[in-house]
Amino acid sequence: MITRTMVRLATSLLQQFGVPATQEERARLARIAYPKVEHARRQSYVLAVRNMAHTAPGIEPAPLRPYTPQAIEQILADVTEPRKPRVRVTVDDNLDQVTRRSKVTVTGQLGARLARHADAAGRDAVFDTAERHGDEVGWARVLSGAENCAFCVMLASRGPDYRSEKSATIASKGARSGKSFHDFCDCRAVLVRKGQDWEGREACERAEDLWTEATKGYSGDAALRAMRRELDRADREGWTHQELLDDLREGSGSPSVGNKTDRKPTRVARSAPDEAFAANQVRVLEASLAKLEAEGRGDSSAAKWQREKLDEFRAQAGVAGGSGGDDGGKDGGGGRTGFDEPDEPWSGHGPGYVHPHRAEKWSEEERVQRQRALPFERNGEQLYQHEIETLERLAGREQHLEWFARERGRPTNDFRWDSMGGIEVDTKATRARYPSIRNHLRRSTEQAEDARAGGKDIQKDHFLIDLGPHKLQEKLRDQLRKYNVRQPGHAVKRLWVMSDSGASLVEIDLEK
What we know:
Layout: H1 2-17, H2 23-55, H3 69-80, H4 97-100, H5 103-133, E1 137-142, H6 150-156, H7 165-169, E2 188-193, H8 201-214, H9 220-237, H10 241-252, H11 273-294, H12 301-317, H13 326-329, H14 364-372, H15 385-396, E3 401-403, E4 415-417, E5 423-429, H16 434-453, E6 462-466, H17 474-481, H18 483-486, E7 494-499, E8 504-507
Parallel strand pairs: 5-6, 6-7
Antiparallel strand pairs: 1-2, 3-4, 4-5, 7-8
Helix pairs in contact: 1-2, 1-5, 2-3, 2-5, 3-5, 6-9, 8-10, 11-12
């Protein structure tokens, strides 16, 4: 809340008064901003005192540190003064200062700095209180749940092992030495009195378990990258940290309930983690390039840079022709070989492939055999394991369809469903969770909309969701009925759900 308030304050000030170009203008703006910044600091202080009363009862809090408008003046000087150019340029003296330094950049930096100054009031109060009481207290880093990165999760997982507030929240080395680990970092240092429970203990234990599960088989920078990938996945799926932890435990066989001693995970090695990461980056970059090409920006500098990185990651992953696009290579179209019998093992079934239902991965030989056995026309397309499984289930239900050939740079539906009147359908294999299904539907409709904006003739409004072995529970069915009401900008016309390994295929009665 305080961070958002300070960002809004920075935006309002610069919109009303412009970027200050002189010391007098900065002093005037600082005096205007001071009352609201000081109010935010007092809010931060009160919150810190209340938290200390809860986590360290009986400890007398230190007073609020003084704060002056001169501190805001210094912030304005830091973010508005033009940086020294690396090359000699000629600048018109009459050029508006706003054009010399992007107002958007200044607004973001000013908001971040004001937020740090406001939050510092609470952090300083906790620090000063701890200084008064010495060894009687310790420190723990607590996640807010708003701006927490992988590094934040790692630091929070250590619990109340920090000797000072500074060591819990401030970087001691590197480019940000002496500062918070990143702008808008809203982690807090909580004072913990020895022998007593403390705010954030359960979150700390969850962070410890999450770090352990997400980084199995990794160490050092590779572990941090693995944690970052899992947090990005949770963000795409709309999951909380607890939901991500449950998903990781389900995939690794670790128990999801029980006390802490019951759920210490067994450390297992992952095969070729660096190769898997590179293969994942191949899929991400191919999907991004496909979107740029659909928008007519295939020759842009961004597209050229992505092609260079794509070649690097392909070399690392041992991928010759790509491993598909977003959602398992479905909409990007770059992962198909176009041949029924490729000379080499298909890269889309390589080390980077992760089954959406966490099923055991087939050998390439089994994938090819089951693909050939499908009773549908595939138009030369190579299919992922989960796609083959979906088609096998439809065949078992005596459905008739034709799989579409992909067009590079153009998102397509997956197949023409002849048993349903020849409509074009996009299929998604996912977990039996509403956020996962919702995000799949949103991304697909957005991709089609972007393609249409680029002049492509594509419509995605019929979907088949394959839940694999999972059952369609009544709660999930009700949530899906309300999808169009909740997502009016990404509405679909018809939606089917196949579940229980193909034993059930139902159309959702979408509310309007």
